[in-house]
Amino acid sequence: QVQLVESGGGSVQSGGSLKLSCVASGEFQNSACMAWFRQAPGKEREGIAVIDTTTGATYYPDHVKGRLTISQGNAKNTVTLQVDKVKPEDTATYYCAAERSCRNGMGAPWFILLAGDFSNWGRGTQVTVTS
Fold this sequence. Notes:
The chain is mainly beta. Helix content is 0%, strand content 47%. The strands form 2 sheets. Strands 2, 4, 5, 6, 9, 10 and 11 form a 7-stranded mixed sheet that branches. The chain has a 4-stranded antiparallel sheet with strand order 1-3-8-7, with no helix packed on it. Strand 4 and strand 5 form a beta hairpin. It is globular, with a radius of gyration of 14 Å.
């Protein structure tokens, strides 16, 4: 079992930046695949960033690429998500997720980050972007 706790949410002005952190405990050393998802009210949970901590490989869907950066923190059990040039549509609850390994094909053009690929989830942290 892996326990995940997100932090860093809050209110941020449009155009600004925010940094979210996810701290893993329990059997986190078995979680090579760490990801961030978000869910806005009335919408489905969407995957926005993933990192394979064994290789450092990352993936972002096209609509957030260039504004988001996922990285492993100084502590091996920490993963961060930097969001730059935030927009009102970034308003959502952000969730950290972990799994033993990342699904094959992370660098392929057909790859999609799916919530069903992850069995460990945090409770989420709310981000509200104000204009």
